[in-house]
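Give me structure tokens for this 369-residue protein.
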Amino acid sequence: MKLLLVLLVAAWCAGTARLWRSAGVGHGVSRAGAACFVLALGALALALLSPIDALAESRFSVHMVQHLLLVAVVPPLFVLGSPVVPLLWSLPRAARRWIAAMGRPLVMLLRAARVAPVIVWSLHTVTVWAWHLPAAYLAAARHPVVHAAEHVSFLLTAMLLWWVVLRPEPGRSPRYATGLVLMLATSVQGAVLGAVLFFAPFPWYVEPSPAALTDQQLAGLLMWVPGGMVYLAAAAWFALRWMRGTVASPRPALAAVTAIVVLLCGCRDRPAVAVQGGDAERGREALAGFGCGACHEIHGVVAAHGRVGPPLEHLATRSLIAGELANTADNLVRWIRDPQAIDPGTAMPNLQVSVATARDMAAYLYTLP
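Here you go.
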């Protein structure tokens, strides 16, 4: 991989230098395009050659960072960098002509992709979901060739998707509405997969353990929020460009921008957490009955103004419980029932709370403003 990147950089530099000597600096490939290509190479090296690649073998959350770099960062930068022309100019003229002749089927395929953006999006979506199925993920983790195929498929399908929305047919303006819809759809499918991983009751890829489940939840959260923000930002850009090009009737684009703003604002808080079998009103009464207010400030519970432990407001928006556990309903029930089994040094006592009562308490705590 290192040798391949070195050869790619050397060929691109040679081709860019030859192109700019012939046509002038900034012609054939712009300065901005050159900067995007350099950034793309940096992101690719970060994903595949940095400690991220080694840590990804043992940490699913780090593996998710690697995947996000390969589908949401490297491809759009490569597409904006337009490296094909400089790379061709690094070759002798006869070789360029031969590649141009042999590449006609590929050009026809790319043109067909422009008129079938839904198929391109579906191909990328199926690729991402398929590689996150347990059997495929474990095969990639165990076999280097399968792992390489996974990364190549991520890169190729993502680059095709970004190319469709960022590179219009020559002589035509970009289809901003298409880009807007595809980016929103990509953000949604990534958020759904991230949520599935986050709320899964057990680890998908390793033996069940609290650490493995927390690692998987972090991976799901990374795909859900940072990954989704990349596509939402791209969707917002397409919406604004669409609005600029539809001055006579800006309402559709304005509605799209408004929807994206609402989505972005909605990402600030975690969604409400459902506690299976829990009753919030019974939980409020149980919190008062067990004297939880002697140590905690709890909104809505009579005389709950304690200062020994932390106040329990906004519990549903926190990432961790007691700084130890991922904030899920099952983990909160575990903490309420036997906190010292999780953190032997905690001052919170074991009050012998039953499972049903702990679920009621958790249900109420997740409603706190």
